[in-house]
Amino acid sequence: MKRREFIAGTTALFVSPRRSRAQATPRRAGFLGGFQNLQIGNVWRDGLRDHGWIEGKNLIIDYRYFEGHAERIPALAAELVALKPDLLIGSNPQATVALKSATATIPIVFVAVPDPVGLGLVQSLSHPGGNVTGLTDFVPGQFSSKMIDTMREMVPTASKIAILVNPGNPIHRLIVAEELPQTARKLGVALLIVEASTVDELDIAFASAAAQHADAIVPFGDPLTVNNAPRVTALAAQHRLPALYLFRLFVTKGGLISYGPDFADLFRRAGGYVDKILKGTKPSELPVEQPTKFELVKNMKTAKALGVTVPPSLVVRADEVIE
Q: Which InterPro entries match (predicted)?
């Protein structure tokens, strides 16, 4: 055998099996969310691709969505755990809490989960402990107050503001019990709690806010409201209630104003967590990160329809103005 052929054959003997095994055994992840969102989905995949993970090639992702049916969440979490993935992703509080209840061993990365300490997901932001870490979308004690303060800046005469919550959302329960009483005292405003856990209850909640003579309404972020954004903004218009939302999506659907973290940025950054965990880093060694980008978006057409004059201070600070 010629020397060149011997070297080539020997190299193939050592390299080819390793390469073929790597190509034949992609890593696996399970993703549990409230609903499908094309824009967020694209950003999420871009974040993975930034770190060399290509869905369908070296990474297989099994998706489950509960689509507003909270009673399905535990079963969907159990389905994903049964697939024995290398890691799990929870895209909201309900999903992450369910995943943590379903497994104490499979690593879990959460995205856009408020107050993970208060929810019992991690021990602290700097030292998560356990099998869970990720990205929070706001710091407890600060953000709900900032939202309501922004609403009052938009409507200075608002002395009674309705807060739309989903009683099935654990973070909503925490905020109502612990943050809102302090916020009401701090800002000197009356906060009315209206609840909706189903689509039909959204109509009842807005009617209740109007019947109680609320000057404005702040629907807290939740899969129920996000998945029914056109209905929510239509109800706000019907009852002539200026509304401030957490997501830009609502303003593009006719909502008045939104203020919140750049969620696309959070999902892109999540790719870094996935990469580190798949390469062997334990979740307990990865501190929880907070948002670094926030968006303020306003809809001037809606403001005109409601008779709301947008203060110059908000116009200057706006990241986007929809005419």
A: ABC_transpt-TYRBP-like (IPR007487)
Pairing state between β 257-261 and 320-322? unpaired
Q: What is the DSSP string of 95-122?
A: HHHHHHHH-SSS-EEEES-S-TTTTTS-
Q: CA-CA distance, 35 to 262, in Å (whole number)?
A: 18
DSSP assigned state of 285: G
**Identity of the residue numbered 302:** T
- Please tell me the pTM assigned to this model: 0.80
Which residues does residue 156 pair with via DSSP β-bridges, in sequence order? none
Q: Please check whether residue 309 is in contact with residue 82, taking contact to mean a CB–CB distance below 8 angstroms.
A: no
Backbone angles phi, psi at 135, to 5 degrees: -125, 125
Q: For the chain, which domains are there?
A: 3-137+263-292 (3.40.50.2300), 143-261+295-322 (3.40.50.2300)
Q: Identify whether the C-beta of residue 182 lies closer than 8 Å to the C-beta of residue 115.
A: no
pLDDT tens digits for range 143-183? 788 889 999 999 999 999 999 999 988 889 989 998 899 99
Q: Which of 140, 147, 89 is CA-nearest to residue 115?
A: 140
For residue 318 the two structure tokens come to 């706006």
**Which residues are registered as beta bridge partners of 89?**
31, 109
Please give the C-alpha separations between residue 99 and each of 80, 151, 242, in angstroms, as whole numbers: 9, 34, 36
